[in-house]
Amino acid sequence: MKFLFDQEKHVYTxxxxxxxxxxxxxxxxxxxxxxxxxxxxxxxxWGTKVHTAVTLYLEDNLDESSLSDPQANVLNQFxxxxxxxxxxxxxxxxxxxxxxxxxxxxxxxxxxxxxxxDPAIIDLKSRxxxxxxxxxxxxxxxxxxxxxxxxxxxxxxxxxxxxxxxxFTPCRDYKQAWSKFRLMLDHYWAKQEYNNKIKIxxxxx
Length: 205
Fold this sequence. Notes:
43% of the residues lie in helices and 21% in strands. The chain has 205 residues and is an alpha+beta fold. A 5-stranded mixed β-sheet has the order 4-5-6-7-8, with helices on both faces. A 3-stranded antiparallel β-sheet has the order 1-2-3, with no helix packed on it. It starts with a strand and ends with a helix. The mean pLDDT is 94.
């Protein structure tokens, strides 16, 4: 199997087949009504900067002098987390897997987890924990790890990072989260099959 991830377009392919990312599958759970596109873009760019800074920090490859003041403030909150709740994972940080594209061999979906430790998956957010979306996302990531890495089930946490504080929240709805994701994934592929048939029928005229 040839698995590729196009970073610029954020597209996953497996032997030429475009795989949906986890957030694409669960997109119907999000409601951005009333939020201007430029605001969404700005928040997405900020989230990317936070993720990058934390990843480079964990890889011991971050030039902290290159960070803006807001980025440095957020990184300081991550360091506080590392000294507090993060200390429970102290034996696992050196082997942490960050931002690794993965795919599920059987169910044909993909994604990139922010931080994968032997006992836990930690998803970084620049917003508060959302029970509806985050539990589904982390459960889908867990199954990716089981398929791609052959790992055992993990605990799921959301680490929300802000300039002046952070929150570290355990996800609580494991069983229902997976059934919700499977329903949305089945819907995604059924819709793809429907659209392909429509294209074929139109081309047959």
